[in-house]
Write a structure and sequence with these properties.
The protein is mostly helical. Helices cover 79% and strands 0% of the residues. The protein is flat. The two termini are 35 Å apart.
Length: 264
Amino acid sequence: MNCLEKYRSRLIGDINRDLKIIRAKLDEKAIHDFRVGIKRLTALYYFLGDLSESMNAKKTLKPYRRIFKSVSGIRDAQIALTLIGDLEGIDETDRKTLLQRLRRNINSDYRRFQRYAAANAELAIRVPTIRALKLSEAAILRYKPLALDRLLQQVFDTEGRIGVTEWHRKRILLKRYRHKLDAFLFCPGHNHDEAEMKQIRMLEQLLGDWHDRITTIELLHSLSGLETRTAAVIAIMRRQDKLLLGAARIYLQKFKIWHARQAN
């Protein structure tokens, strides 16, 4: 068995288990785990797609990205609930009003997902096996360092102005880099460098916390009729997102310097 096949098999099993739970009930953990699973699957099949002449990864994953998007609004609102619930310095009446609206939106979005799921009775993740793609383990292992380095260089690229869109892309690429590393867990000669993982986890945490606030601000802007109640929350979160992004810039530079030293 190809060393990536064991990882692929476990991953798809976990994703379909979480999808089954979500179809049955509004489960926050299952929604989070399902989204992470789809991101892992995307990282794996983009890697395989670079090697396969018979598969277009984007086309293969398109139906599952659609399911991913169908629960994304729910997850964004769940994150906003936590952030606003913990936020200091805001009026309690405003907090209560915003939390109530977000909960209503979550329930509405979940009913929409249930209708989507009911219309697609066979909803499940089914993607080609590595054997079906006729990819040898030797070819995969040869391509591994090139693919990882290419991703990392895109993360490290700080030429020109880096705006919100570019930082969001770096966050996605960094996650994809880590997910690709994880995919090789069962492959011969593969070892996680704990020092590197520590650097990645810190940067991911900062960029993740930053992105949570950006997403929450966008969500708050969409709550029509609540502009006066959202203003103070948005102002606080904008200050937080600037601090988090400033810290992320520092840690990205540290990670870049650390990686250059390891390569020499």
